[in-house]
Amino acid sequence: SLRESSETSARLASVVGVLDRIGALDLPGKRADITRRVRKGLVGALALGLVLAVFPLWRHFSRPRLKAISVESVSLENPTGMTFDGTKLWFSQWGGDLVSFDPKDLRAPSSRSAAKGLGSYHPTALASGSGVLWSVDSAQARVIKHRGGKPEEVLGSLRTPGPAPAALAYDGSSLWLYDAATQAIYRQKDSAAEFLPVPAETELVPAAMVFVDGRLWVFDSRSKELVILELKEDKLRVWSKSALSESVLAVAVAGKEIWAL
User: Model-level pTM?
Assistant: First the structure.
């Protein structure tokens, strides 16, 4: 579980990396592959960049090929989630802190924030976009809306449809959420007052989710695969599947790079 992963990684140095650049030249139709860079002892704090390497002309007719290109250490005590807000990489920690780093210099954090007035709060996933940062609070089964760049300022909250919210993603207009208890993926469309379930054609246990080029990338902890989904006729349909060699706790799209924790 995310909580178990976070507790295991407590007091360990986190490792963050970049994988490749989106749009790099490669042959189409090959399955994704992640190169192993770190020993298993650091898996709980592993961060790899997962990168598209697809020739642009074939972007809509081929499958992405992923390759790890770097791994870096960052100083985090108990990381649980990650997102990129356009400027900074943000990490959540089990204790409630939200920590930012400049992706060009991960030697020291840029800021450290603690949201105010939330009571018991254990963030386990992050998403960002449209000037807002969202966090999943597993302590009280809710999604917290923070001011972008200043997450200590809380703008609102929304109850989750299940008691165990675990993964979060933002597609530019809608929030997407996975709940481990109901084992379903939900969407909050156009700032609606509630999340509604979206059926998927395959069973998934997402540890992390992120949108890339309009598709939902799911890092499935059950199969240890990267499953890329497309929304067609109100159903999430599998576009591709790729085996993973490492566990993934969180992902973030930073420009033309995809980072994984």
Answer: 0.78
